[in-house]
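Q: Could you write out the predicted structure for this multi-component system? I'm mainly interested in how the pieces pack against one another.
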Amino acid sequence: MASEQWSDLPKWLPVAPGKLLPAVVQDAANHMVLMQVEVNQEALARIAATGRVHYYHPGKRKVVAKGEASGHFQEIVEIRLSCGGDQLLFKVRPAGGACELGYASCFFRSLTPQGWETADPKTFDPEEVYPEIAFSH
Amino acid sequence: MASEQWSDLPKWLPVAPGKLLPAVVQDAANHMVLMQVEVNQEALARIAATGRVHYYHPGKRKVVAKGEASGHFQEIVEIRLSCGGDQLLFKVRPAGGACELGYASCFFRSLTPQGWETADPKTFDPEEVYPEIAFSH
């Protein structure tokens, strides 16, 4: 069980209340970098309890489960720690795209001589997955 | 020339003075996540001028070139931008390991039931590469 596999995370990475650590989320299978988030004490506790990525959402000012709106949860396969002990890398098995705009990765734009251009194909329709969000066309 | 390839980066990503953006550095060939840093206006200008990763070093309180002590520069092959426009992903060709402790990636420790364990082989001898740093044994 994933929930048992990571249950000791808070023990091995004690974090002071209010402290945020950057965390990179990478697809464990195809190695795409999916997103970059911040985690706090509560997010680490919820990761330990569920085996799924949780992070502090700065806009909502609270900890959210990745996928709680979309169903695109991210099961954690491996947890890596930086040399400084203050950054994390989550290797995950995603249930769907990470980006609310319809892409597997939030980093879907690439710099070209003409500026930032979409470099990845859409993997889902965000209007179907996030019906509560009004998308402009 | 790499320096010409990214020369318009500050134009396509204007950043206010004092603002820091998180940036993930990934090996373009083997897809390892090498490190996670922050970049400011000056770091982006130096990336544009050289085609190599520069970042704000919080300990030194200044922008440094990755590799300026070790020679392990990171040539930028691709620059990706997050959906929010406030995070970067640099895909790089590294001249050597990213981690001052002798590893290709700073994320060389993996969580196990016994805690954080070294999961990657050393790729260089840090005492040879960083002679000015005293390592304890």
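A: Regarding packing and overall arrangement: Chain A has four helices and eight strands.
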